[in-house]
Write a structure and sequence with these properties.
The complex is a heterodimer of chains A (286) and B (440).
Chain A: H1 2-28, H2 58-70, H3 93-101, E1 104-107, E2 116-119, H4 133-139, H5 151-154, H6 163-170, H7 175-185, E3 201-202, E4 211-212, H8 233-248, H9 252-280
Antiparallel strand pairs in A: 1-2, 3-4
Helix pairs in contact in A: 2-8, 7-8
Chain B: H1 13-20, H2 23-31, E1 35-37, H3 46-65, H4 75-85, H5 89-116, H6 125-147, H7 152-165, H8 172-180, H9 187-218, E2 234-236, H10 237-262, H11 292-300, E3 305-306, E4 313-315, H12 317-330, H13 335-338, H14 350-371, H15 378-403, H16 413-425, H17 431-434
Antiparallel strand pairs in B: 1-2, 3-4
The chains are: A mainly alpha (286), B mainly alpha (440).
């Protein structure tokens, strides 16, 4: 019996030894040689919308809209959103109407068969800065500025093992907002010896390389806030990131409220079932 | 196990119907009086959970299909419109997507439970094979469902998976074009995938009926692996199994809801929030987590297999990888005959128990490897892990059955239960009534 065990087990021992040696090699070589981006992990911000009771800070979203309107919208579209969605930010119908009316959209054809321009209405989608993606890319040296609607969900640098397991328990789902914030405050001079190609800008937080086509978009006081908040770079980066999170996931507060009720109900129901089961099985040896 | 029907129809309409279509009798015999071993633990609740998950996926899927537009230009936005503007659309879509993941969580637990307790051994070979067929259909359904939102991972995943078929010698390209409805993944592909994604769940439901039918013919296994010998060994399905399954289901749904409402994107991939773009390839194309072990097996074969010392290639690396990947699933069909031991439950196989857990850890590790880029240290690790996956089935399973000396097994289920109660009762006389819940 023991000799058989030994004979069967010895390949495992060999394999285990092999694995250990292999892991040693992996520690010796630089990790993620080809896929080491972003160079720096995103910085984690304390967001109002994190956690089980998280919700959006309307004042922050309004500041974010101001940045979007005055800075980002020059290049970035946001075509999954309608002007009417701004009601989420606490604006009145009248304010939304006035905001939308600043933009001209093409409508038609009218009864004469012709397209015509008219001021945008609350039921229109956000008007983008370009006619189409080809024009957008052409105007930006071939680098298409991505649409803002889902960006906060579409950018999520890998968390790595074992962090991704802890994330389940800490309910961490703010990867996208953290990433955008970090990118916006992360522009800096490239370190000694790092070549940055013409037209690119060094940023160690960029997800797909060491530099990106977008130049630093926000500086201190890039916008003047209506609510008197000091428009530091850090503050602006947080506000636009929160705004983009809202754009990508406008139902987040309702979702979390609903989830709290659902999970609470199921746990309560489970408690009742547990008591029932205990009673039903009480005199049944099993 | 089906035994004698104890159903007593009510007078009047009940009796009238029972003489013509005894549907109520079938339900009664299957879900009320059906005898189950009294010693089943909580791992045996996943069959019921899976049935509910299938129904849940079908119902949410049907409603989502009312809003979804299977058109390459509209599909992506139609899913977003559902999430943003349809009442409860956001919950519905997350429930379906996260539900698919949890369907696989449940099926993996169910499969490993079957492997541990030898549920595939005679006379349950057909039961096991039908289960593997369901698993295969689930994989096909899940893959096609993942393509429908038409994000970057949808598109490129479809590109990669359909390219497997082009590895088939001679007819490969033709088969691939037939699947895609063209030379590349496009609108035609999306349309047929939508149609099939709607069809396959109903085929799964059909096979589930056969799966449950065979189960009710052979009866369930149990943790001792000893067959039911007398009426003492069993208890009626209702209320005992019903209440136990219901409790397990509700706990399972509570965990799933945590993900649906608080971490809806945790199990998905961020790139799928970028609309499909045939001109931009994502940096790393990875499938959903439940396919990762097989994805690792696919990539483990990166070498041509030919006649040694000649230039003749019999199987190139692409075909080799595809064969290994499909082989990793197909090998499950042969498990009933690969395992040579006549002891069912791993509880009584001390040596096999070690190998079982090694296999389980290796399978999880293989999944992790599938998520790593194919470079550096990950390549040899993937090869070693793949080798072990196959070695478990082809070497360990057949060999151990011949050598291993099993532990003594109880004479009957009731014996095992009483022995356990006595063991517990020695220290505390009332333990039989206060303890059992630890074992479920």
């Amino acid at each position: 019996m023991t000799t058989i065990t030994a004979r069967v087990l010895s390949p495992i021992r060999v394999l285990t030894a092999g694995l250990l040696v292999a892991m040693g090699v992996s520690l010796a070589t630089p990790a993620n040689a080809a896929s080491g981006y972003p160079i720096n992990k995103p910085r984690e911000v304390d967001w109002s919308f994190s956690g089980p009771f998280g919700t959006y800070d309307k004042a922050q979203l309004q500041r974010g809209l101001k940045i979007y309107t005055e800075v980002c919208a020059a290049c970035h579209s946001m075509n999954l959103l309608f002007y009417r969605n701004l009601a989420d930010l606490g604006y009145t119908d009248e304010q939304i109407k006035n905001y939308a009316a600043e933009y001209e959209v093409t409508d038609g054809p009218n009864d004469d068969g012709e397209m015509f321009e008219r001021p945008a209405r609350a039921t229109d989608r956000f008007k983008g800065p370009y006619l189409n993606v080809k024009e957008a890319a052409y105007a930006n040296n071939g680098a298409l500025p991505p649409d803002f609607s889902l960006l906060a969900k579409a950018r999520a640098p890998e968390r790595g093992f074992p962090t991704f397991i802890f994330d389940i328990f800490t309910m961490y789902a703010e990867n996208g907002a953290d990433y955008i914030y970090s990118l916006l405050v992360g522009y800096q001079e490239p370190p000694e010896g790092v070549e940055v190609s013409e037209g690119l800008h060094y940023n160690p937080y960029f997800v797909a390389g060491s530099a990106l086509a977008m130049a630093q978009p926000l500086y201190e006081e890039s916008v003047e806030y209506d609510d008197g908040t000091v428009a530091s770079l850090d503050q602006q980066a947080k506000d636009i990131s929160a705004f983009m999170m809202w754009a990508a996931d406008p139902n987040l507060p309702q979702r979390k409220q609903r989830g709290f009720i659902v999970v609470l109900f199921l746990l309560g129901f489970a408690g009742l079932l547990y008591a029932t089961k205990k009673k039903v099985w009480a005199n049944v040896p099993h | 196990m089906s035994g004698h029907s104890t159903y007593k129809p009510g007078p009047g309409i009940g009796k009238w119907m029972d003489d013509r279509l005894p549907l109520a009798r079938l339900m009664h015999d299957s879900f009320v009086s059906y005898p189950v071993p009294r010693n089943l633990n909580n791992f045996y609740t996943f069959g019921g959970i899976l049935m509910i998950m299938l129904v849940s996926q079908i119902i949410t899927g049907i409603v989502i299909a009312m809003h979804y537009v299977p058109d390459a230009n509209l599909a992506f936005n139609s899913v977003q419109d559902l999430r943003r503007d349809v009442a409860y659309g956001n919950t519905l879509q997350s429930w379906h997507t996260v539900g698919a993941s949890f369907f696989f969580v449940a099926v993996y637990i169910h499969i490993f439970r079957g492997l541990y307790y030898g549920s595939y051994k005679a006379p349950r070979e057909v039961l096991w094979i039908l289960g593997v067929v369901i698993y295969l259909l689930m994989m096909a359904t899940a893959f096609m469902g993942y393509v429908l939102p038409w994000g970057q991972m949808s598109y490129w995943g479809a590109q990669v998976i359909t390219s497997f078929f082009s590895a088939i010698p001679l007819v490969g390209e033709t088969v691939r074009e037939f699947l895609l409805g063209g030379y590349a993944v496009g609108n035609a592909t999306l349309n047929r995938f939508f149609s099939l994604h709607y069809l396959l769940p109903f085929m799964i439901a059909g096979i589930v009926i056969l799966h449950v039918w065979t189960l009710h013919v052979t009866g369930q296994t149990n943790p001792t692996g000893v067959e039911v010998k007398s009426k003492q060994d069993v208890i009626p399905f209702t209320p005992y199994a019903t209440v136990k399954d219901a409790l397990a289901l509700v706990i399972f749904l509570a965990i799933m809801s945590y993900f649906v409402f608080f971490l809806p994107d945790y199990l998905g991939h961020a790139d799928n929030y970028i609309p499909a773009n045939p001109l931009v390839t994502p940096a790393h194309i990875v499938p959903e987590w439940y396919f990762l072990p097989f994805y690792a097996v696919l990539r483990a074969v990166d070498f041509n297999i030919g006649i040694p010392f000649t230039e003749i290639v019999l199987i190139d690396s692409k075909l080799g990888g595809v064969l290994a990947m499909f082989g990793a699933i197909a090998i499950l069909f042969f498990v009933p005959w690969l395992d040579t031991s006549d002891v069912r439950s791993t509880n009584y196989r001390p040596l096999y128990k070690i190998f079982f857990w090694l296999f389980a850890i290796n399978a999880v590790f293989l999944g992790y490897l599938g998520s790593r880029p194919a470079e550096g240290i990950w390549i040899p690790l993937t090869k070693a892990s793949t080798f072990w996956y196959f070695a478990h089935f082809l070497v360990v399973m057949p060999a151990l059955g011949l050598f291993e000396k099993p532990l003594p097994r109880p004479a009957s289920i009731m014996d095992a239960v009483m022995a356990k109660a006595d063991g517990a009762g020695a220290s505390a006389p009332s333990a039989a009534t206060s303890e059992p819940n630890t074992k479920g």
